Structures are given as structure tokens and as C-alpha cells.
Amino acid sequence: MAHSRFVVIFSVMISVIILGLSLVLYSRASVTEQNSSKIDTVGGHTPGYPILQTTGDVLDPTSLNINPETAVVDPSKYLREFNYGTVTNSSNGTKIREFTLIASDTQTKEVSPGVLYNVWTFNGTIPGPTIRATEGDTIRITLINNGSKFHSIHFHGIHPSEMDGVFEGIAPGGKFTYEFTAEPFGVFPYHCHMQPLEEHITHGLYGALIIDPKKPRASADEMIMIMNGYDTDFDTENNFYTVNGIPYYYMHHPIQIDKNRLIRIYLLNMLEFDPLNNFHLHANMFDFYKTGTKLIPDEYTDIVTMNQAERGILEFSYKYPGKYMFHAHKTEFAEKGWTGLFLVNDETSPVSIQNSNLTAATTNATDQIPYNTSNLSNVTSISPAGGLK
Amino acid sequence: MEREESSSKNTNRYPISKKTILFGIVPFIVIGAMLILLLSSPGILFQSPIEPLPQISIEKVEFSDQYIVAFVRNTGPSEITIAQADVNDRIHPAAIEPEQTLSKFSAAKVIIPFIWNSGEPYNIGITTDDGTRFEKTIDSAAQVPRPTIEQASSFALIGTYVGVIPVMMGLVWYPFIRRLSISKYNFFLSLTAGLLVFLGIDALLESNEIAMDNLAPVFNSQILIIIITIVSFLALQYVSQKLVQRASKSKSDIGYNSEITSRSTPNLELKDVDSSSGTSLQQQLLIRPLAISMMISIGIGLHNFGEGLAIGAAVLLGEIALSSFLILGFMLHNTTEGLAIVAPMAKARRIPIRKLIVMGLIAGVPTILGTWIGGFLYSPVATVIFLSIGAGAIFQVVYSIGSWMHHTNGSKGLLSNLSIITGFALGMLLMYLTGLLI
Fold first, then answer.
1. CATH superfamily entry for domain A75-360
2. What does the pLDDT average to over B152-173?
3. Residue of B nearest to A33 (CA)
4. What is the pLDDT of residue B372?
5. Shortest CB distance from B377 goes to which of A24, A52, A56?
6. Measured in whole angstroms, how far is the alpha carbon of residue A277 from the centre of its chain?
């Protein structure tokens, strides 16, 4: 009798244990079933780290290209794209530059490989198009509000009150033309100034305005770089940090430059939430022109730190060929996307200079950014890329 | 058996007509049609302006040589795509297997090549395609135990120290308890009940904590814990009733220890006889303690299995570093469990040592099994389930002890007996105090 009792007890216990084991194994099995059709590798960017072979998918914004169809911006194109507007001459001889910006707030685009975000844009990209004029020109910018909320454009610089884009919002479906004289020369941000300001800026309504001095700066390979971030989960902390809109983009698409060629970067910080951002250049030093409003550099350095809306001009050239990193020296930002590479070419490429901008052709590899070969004449107008439906 | 017969009689008395069948089927048809309609065109009844929020849960994080592996499950309302992984909020290249798109409730393994530091806390983040970041913090990174012979024997050793030895030591008190007067005996029985109530509550709280930390809200794990506890209670109650009934049917199997019974019966005023078993009072006195003790061993065995799972998992998750002090704490804590097993048998006939050892093993050995499963194949779902089963088992034992004491004390009411109340309170306090060592 006692014997059979123990049999009952033990069988109960064993069945309980088997039940548990099978539960555990089931939860494992649901993980381990895989398709073995493809093998990808992960890692290996960092010295000492293992290279992982996987039959699954790769999650790697540091090396994966973003789909250009769904990306919020093409940083290759954006880097050297300066828009001079449609130019007419007024009766007193000043140039009038006309631009059209279309505000939109309903689109969802990819801000990092595989990450979708409701972007608010000027002309469909974050950052918005770079507007460029010469000191003394008349700038006319027509804002068409194609969004669902009130929007405006607030330019930094000198202009009348009614052109400040703060007290007059443009209603959805509305239109307004801002007009002011380009002054002084320098680098300026523009952004939407509707309330809540933080929301309108962090969603992407900003861009750069460059006003050149009447006597042009020295000829150089010029670039625009806007530092920003994305708070994709709305916790008032950025999930991604970028320069020119896509995290890590210039890591897998290094910016090609020539050895000993003067490089000029118009750098702006539009980062929301974090009080500081910075730019650090590897293996080199640069002249820094704070706000770009003077022709004499303020500093010779390899790092510059900026608050939101602070900006300046960087000038440097590389003495040695090779790959050089540039990134935020707030390493958190660097490790969340604000990192890129310069690829310095040894031989000087055939260069045709036009209006202090470069057109050149040096393409060693398809994934490296060549000089912009498009015609950078004074009459390029901004095409509304982010569409009117 | 009786119930089955009566139900078959009922069906004979009321034959099922076609009308009845129709009434039986109609609800299924209507509900089924509604299901098909709603699933095929979800927006037909109402259009929600808000999209349901995605939800994933990181159920487990393992640290192995140069890799961190996160086990994620889609616990949200619809399909989801994982976009990236991070360690301490810094983006790292990773692989996801089998694939980055997860259907509802399916799981995937995110493998992050990462050189981690032992003993440091890590926060693992997984970002979905809508940019939401889900995270899990591991307090102290530790190499995931590999199921090697060394590791298995190390866990077995821990299990022996923590489970088997303390329970066995508790059993050694058997002869001491046998010689107690009835009021002191009542005290020890209620002490046991107190110890067990503590263990039961502890198991419920712990399973709740694990469920909250590791399981997604979609599993409704708190309700699950309560259901499993109740079902386990009822199932074990049924088993114990069967054990008592069977034992009492074969009277010859039970020896009659006149010495013990004669010493203890004068103090007892037992009037009510368990009608279901139909055995005499004296037989009841002999059979039930053994059955109760056996049920206590099973209950404690289940509890120790859960405890072993928790220990193994804690080692795995790096939540505890198993120090000798910790093991000492568990030992003291679990010695009282041995006491719980022997207490009900104190007034029964002399129990053969062999049987005592078997009971001790039933109560203690599951700890070893638990550490193996918890350490090598940690699953928070399994841990929660076993802790709940253990809780139900323990409450069943408390119930048995209570009803046993009610019988032996007759009409006197348990709560008017000071030794019972102090025993119960002291039992819980003792567990609380030894629990502080852990």
C-alpha cells in the first residue's frame, strides 16, 4: 500500500516536472526555428569585436543603407546642395531671389534604417533646403502651408517685425510671402515658430540660410552640416542624433574630399532637448568663424561646442590622405548616430570652379559621396520635393 | 463514480430533442458569425481614431562570450518590426533571429556582439519600427551557465545545501516532537502552519514580482497566478483525500501503536468522525497524520522546485552572487520545512526511518531539479507557474493541518487556543527573520 502511494506521488511530481520542461523547451523552440536560406554578418566595425554570422536579419544602422525612397532626406545630395532661388533684378539693381517652401506635417518617413517617424518638413526633407543669397539681395520666400497645423518661418538675421514669423501663423492651406534684405552676411537658421515651439522644431521644421559677403570668400569645397536629433518615442529625450538627417549616414557613405583642398563647412546646431552639441574633427585643426559674421577666424581648434541655433563656419584642409572621422564629442550623441567619415583622396582631381563652389568628378566607390556635379548656377530654384497632394 | 451514474440517469430521464440541440448550437453559430465578420473587416462596427500601441517584452537577457543575447516577444496587438538594438542606450550592430518582423506573440533572439564586463549593470534596449524603445535592465552581468557537468554538479551541490540537507535536518527533530504534550504539540503544528502560510504568501509575491518584471501585461499573469494556485490547491486536496481514503480501506497495512495512542487520546475529545472514509476515530488518528505529512512533503517539494528555479535563474540573471552567507540563510530558512513535515506525525505510530528519508527527499530533491532548469533553461513563464503551483500546494497543506487540528481539538475552536495562535504567529515570524538572511 505504502509502495503504491509513493508511486502515485512520484508520478505526480514527475509529470509536473515534465510539464515544466516541455513549457521551457517550447518557449525555446519558438525562438530557434529559422530559415537558413541566407547568411549575413554583423559587427567587425570595432577592433576586437567578433564578427557574427546570422541566418536572421541584421539590425545595424551603422552600416545599413537607408531606403532612399522612404528616407526623410538624401544626405549625399543635401551636403553640397545650395539653393540660390529664382533671380530677377529690381529697378535699382538689387537681385531679388525668390524661393518657395512647402510646410507639411502629415508624412511618415524613415529617419534611421527601419525606424519611421511622423516628420514635419519644409519641402519634404529634414533638414529643410539650404537657402543662399549674397548680402544686400532681396529674399522673397513664399511659404505654402500644406500641413494640418499652423506653421511659419522665423529667420535669424535682421528684418522687420512682420517678417519675423512669430505672431502671424500661416493657416493650413494658407500662403504667405516673407520678404527682407539679406543682412548681415553669415550663417543663420530658419525654423517654424508656432507653439509649442519645441514640438514644431523637434519634428523637423528647420533649415539653414547662408548670406555670403559681397566680396566672396576664398574658393573652397563647401558643405552644409546641420546637427539634429529625433525623439521617436516622445519622452523628451532624443533616440537618434545625426548630421544632415540620417544617423551614421556618412559612416557608410564617406564624404570624399581632396588632399590640400580648402574645405568650408557651414555648421548649425538645431538639436532639441539636449542643451549642447558639438563637432570634433579628427587628425586636423580648423579655423572657426563664429556665426560666420566676420572674415577673421575666432579660433583655431579641433572642436566646437554649440547650443541650439548656434552656428558657424569651419575651414580646414587635410594634409594626408586617408579616412578621418568627424563626430560629436559628446560621445553619447556619437554612439547614437552623430558620426561620419571624410575620405581624403591623394591626387587632386580635375576641378572646375564656379562661384566658389566645386564641381568635380572623383568617384572611387559608388557608396562614397562625389562632388555635386549638378549645375550650381545662380538660378537654381527650390523644387518642392515634399509634395503637394 | 456516483456523480457519473446520476448524470447518466438524468440524460435518460430527459432525452435530448432536436429542439434542444438547436438551442445548443445557435449561440455557437451567432458568435462564430460575429467572429468571422469582425476578423475579416475589423472596422465594420467602429473606427478607432487611435492605433493600438505596439508592445514587446524582453523576457530574458543572456551574457555569453563577447555577445549579449536578448529574447524578445511581440506581446502587442499586431505584427511588429524590430529596427535596432542598443546597449546602455548606445546603438550597436546586432542580428535578429529568425527575423526582424514578429507576428503577434512570436519571439525572436537579438544577438549583439558586445564585450561586456562581469558584474556591471546593463540596460538593453530594443527599438521598434515606430521608434519606440523598450528596455530591460540587468543588475549585474554574469556569464550564462552552460549545461556542463561541472556547472550541473555545482548547481546540484547548491540544491543539496539549500534544499536537501536543511529538510533532512528538520526531520531529525521527529523524536523530540513525539515526546511533547498535546498543547506543546498543538503549538508545533500551528507553528508549522505559520511557516507554511509564510512560504505560500512568499511564493505568491515572488511569482507576482517575476511576472511584473518579465512578462508582458497581455498575459494577465496576476490572474494566471491566482487561477493556478486555486487549481493546484483543489487538485492536491483531491489527491490527499484519495490518499486518506485508500489508506483507511486497507486497515491491515497500518500498525496500531497502542502506547502512543493511549498516551494521547485522554487529552482528545473527538466526537465527529470523518463520514466519507467511514473509519473509526483511532484509525483516523493514525492514517491522517501520515497522509498530511506526505502532502506537506509534496507541497514543500513543489515549493522548493520553484525556489530552485528562482535560485538558478537568479544566478543566470546575475541578480544574486551566491555567497556562502546566502546559502546559510537558505539553509536556516529551509530547516523549518523539515519540521513542518514531521510535526503532524508526532502522535502517530513510529514511522520507519526509510519513510522519513523518502519524505525528506520528496521535499528536498526538487530544489536540485529547479536549479538545473532555472539555471540552464530559464523561462519566467515556467517559474511563475511553478511558484503558483507551489503556493497552492502549500495552502492545501495548511488547510489539512487546520482541519486535522480541528478534529483533534474537538469543539474547542482553534482560535481560542493560545498555544495555537502563538505557534502560528511565531511560525510566520521565524520565517520572516530567517528570510532576512537571504
1. Cupredoxins -  blue copper proteins (2.60.40.420)
2. 83
3. B98
4. 85
5. A24
6. 14
